[in-house]
Structure prediction request, 349 residues.
Amino acid sequence: MSDSPFRGLQLVTGGSGYLGSDLVRRLVARGAKVRVFDLVDADDRPPEVEFQQGDIRDADAVARACDGVDAIYHNVAQVPLVRDRAMLQSVNTHGTGLLLEAALAAGVRKIVHTSSSAIYGVPVQLPVTEATPARPAEAYGRAKYAAEGICAEFVARGLDVSIIRPRTILGSGRLGIFQILFEWISRGSNVPVLGSGDNVYQFIHAADLAEACILAAGRAGPAEYNCGANRYGTMREVLENLCQHAGTGSRVKSVPMRPAIAGMKLTSALGLSPLSGYHWLMYGRSMYFDNARAESELHWKPRFSNDEMFIESYDWYLRNRERILTTRGPSHHRSAVKHGVLRLVGWLL
Prediction:
């Protein structure tokens, strides 16, 4: 598929969210006709983009959204910040099934399903490849893995579905749990790492991820692609480099891993912290992908390093901080979060 013109209407589910809104902008820039399906509209939606309001769990609404569509970029998902297991299953798993059923009935050419690295849990070997066994270890990862199983069922029924598994996403506009980190650093508070912080941790820029999704939509045949940055290092390195860039006096401080994880679990269970299972499971552990398949089959190459995307995200936060702290965005990843007990962390280190 050439960049422009596209062959038909492009549907972006979750198009008001963080990745979805970036995809919408990039598709429009390529000359595509785009429809967004989401619970809420976004104030930055391009005026030429159609908006259909609806819940991914509403079969009739989903069917209407799929009518006349050539390709679907499926990004609707409840994120790890949502600790309601029933909600994670109904949206991330059951909602995916409803979408694929509607896509099959509507004769949609291609579906690109955005999954998650959380399906791998704590991998036994690194780097992670598409052949690495899935071992989801918390509710969000299990729901996303179940959705992948539904994708496989529909592939067997003749639907062309490709799966993109991103590492943790950053870039301008990324908030959610990162807003807490950026706020700490902007105030000069210290930043914790678990243990030494020498765990190797890979991120991905939203622009690089959106490009991978668009390339996957143009490639016929079902496939799975793991996508992350090509230039990355340890968690301590990326946070120390960000603190140096900020120049606010923030420093990275080690905290003992086991007591910290126990505290994270307890405060989360008591509703005192926004952190979820995936955060305490992976923050102190190494996680990185081998991008070879995406680079070979999609001719995709990530542009941003860990350091570049952290600095861009932080600088954007500073420029927009006043608005962010006083308004609610259209999704968890585009909104500030309640710090809870984490408000005390920077002061205690």
Summary: The CA atoms of residues 54 and 73 lie 16 Å apart.
